[in-house]
């Protein structure tokens, strides 16, 4: 989408209002549209941030709609990509606990492919929230994600026969452990190294 600044702001503001006021289908569609806009350009990501779009996106993580949750996680992932400011804004709005909370309760016996898909998206969001701006990692979010209890479910997910979930989890672990001795130690203690090495051999 190519749009003038004023039009972009108006469209984004309307979509954010839909997140707050629309019914479930409208919320699903608005979150998907915001995810696409955030993926497209930094200007769009800034507009979403300036329109206070992060809190209502995060609110969808409590929705009864699986689609709304998935679209919201993708939107957060795209907003966080390469932006320390947006990563901090997501964390300040309680986003770290909400994203990690999507993975709580996951077990090796989980067979629900919808749960696998949502957890794969959550792992991708964790990667971007901790990845920083490409030059330096976001150490505050690395700490916050670990403190929110992300490590144990991430390690469990390595054993799920879903290549996408395994790949996203491995990328999240790499981002969380980069330059962070505490997270490296936690990942090792939880037994993640053998399955990670197995993925490398298979990959």
Report on the architecture of this protein.
- With 203 residues, this protein is mainly alpha-helical.
- It contains 13 helices and no strands.
- The chain has helices spanning 5-21, 24-40, 42-50, 54-59, 66-80, 84-92, 95-101, 113-131, 139-147, 151-157, 163-177, 181-189, 193-202.
- α5 packs parallel to α8 (113-131), α8 packs parallel to α11 (163-177) and α10 (151-157) packs antiparallel against α11.
Topology:
Blueprint: H1 5-21, H2 24-40, H3 42-50, H4 54-59, H5 66-80, H6 84-92, H7 95-101, H8 113-131, H9 139-147, H10 151-157, H11 163-177, H12 181-189, H13 193-202
Q: Can I get a quick summary?
A:
With 203 residues, this protein is mostly helical.
Provide keyphrases for this structure.
globular; mainly alpha; 203 residues; 13 helices
